[in-house]
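Fold it.
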Amino acid sequence: MKNSQIIEILDYWNFWNQDRDTGVQRAGYVDELFRQKDIKEVSVVVGVRRSGKSTILLQVLKKIIEWGTPKENILYVNFEEPAFTPCLNLEFLSQLYGAYMEEFNPRGKVFIVLDEVQLVPQWEKFVRGLYDRGENIKFYVTGSSSKLLSREFGSALTGRTYSNEIFPLNFREFLEFKGKQNLLNRVSGKGSPKLRHWFRHYMKFGGFPQVALTPKEKDKTQILKDYYSAIIEKDIVQRYGVRDAKKLKEFCLNLVVNISTPFSGYKAKKRQEISQPTANKFLEYARDVFLIQTIDYFSYSFVRQKANPCKIYAIDPGLYNAVSFKFSENLGRIFENLAYLEYRRKQKEIFYWQNKNEVDFLVRKGVKINKAVNACWELNKENREREINGLLEAMDKFKLKNAEIITMGYKEEIKVGGKKIQVRNFFDVI
C-alpha cells in the first residue's frame, strides 16, 4: 500500500480535516484517560467488543485537541478498517507511522491511539521501540482480549503499561444516554414509576451504548444477537483457532444462560460430554474476551478455593436476555448479576462464600474480608431468613460487625445481637 493511500484512509478516522461527532460523553472514563495523557506509560484500554472503547478514546482525543494540542499531533488508527486487513504486520505499522510523520512532521508531543491492536502480530515490538527510544509520544492501545494483551505485555512491555477496563453502560450512564438522568435525583423508596420502567428496560436490554440508543426493541434484540455471534465467531473461534465450533457455541450458551450460578469443569463434562480440560479451556476463552466474568469461592486455602466451583456472571444482561428468552423468570439472577457488575466497575476484589447458606459477595481489602453482601431482587417472607442467616454466618466467620443486602427499592436496618445488616436500595448503590 502506498503512503498516499494510507494517509487518505487515516484522514477518514482522524480530526485533521473534520470535527468528528463523538456522541454522548462517558465522563468517568474520559476524565481518567485524559489524566493519563501526562504519564509516559502506555495506556491500555480493554473491554468487551462494542462496549464503547473506540468512542471513548475519540472523546479523549477531542478533549486533548480542545486543550491546545494541534490536530496534526493526533493519530488514531482503527485496525478493523477493511482496507488495512491484508497489511496487518509489524512492517506495515512502521510504514504507517512513517507516512504520518512524513505528511505532518508534527512538533511537540504526539498522541497515538492503536485501536483493536491485537489484530496486528508483534505490535508490541513497534510500541516498545518508540517507547524505549524516548520519542515524545503518548500511546493509547485498545483490545478486546484481556489475557492476550497481558501475555504480550509480559514479553515486551513489562512495567511500561497502565491498564484500564471499559464496561458497557451502568444504569446511571444508561439514563444519561436516554436523557433521563434527573429521574435519579429524587429517588425515595422504589423510585418513580418512570424510573422503575427504565430500570426494567435496562435489565432486559443492558448497557451496550448502541443498543441503548436504538429505539425499537426488535432492533435491540437483533443487535445483541449479532454482538453475541461476533464475540463467539471473531473473538474466540477465529482468534484461538477453535476446531469444534459447535461444541464451543453450546458451551458458551450454557455459560451465559446460567448466570449467577456455580460452574465447574466436572458439571460441564456431564452436561455436554466434553472433557474437563476442554471445558476449562473454553471457559478461559470466554473470560479472555469478556463474554463472562467469574468469581471464586473464598478460602484462606488456595487449594480449597480452586477445588470449589466458580460463579458465572455475564458482562451485560442484554446478552443474557438475547439468548436465553427467560427474562421474567430470572429477575433475581439478573439483579444479582447487575450488583456484581457494580462492584467490578469499582475494581473491588470479590469472592462468594457458602456454609449452610450462601453469601453472594465477600469483598476483600488487602488480606482481610471487610464486607459481606447479598443481592436480592425482593426481600420477602420466603427468602428473608435465608438471606439474613447467610450473612450472619459470614459475619461470625470473618469477624464483621456490619453486612449489606442490596435490593430493589427497599431500605431497612436489621440488628441481631451486636451485628447490623443494612438493607440498601440498588439506586443508592450505583
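The CA atoms of residues 317 and 338 lie 8 Å apart.
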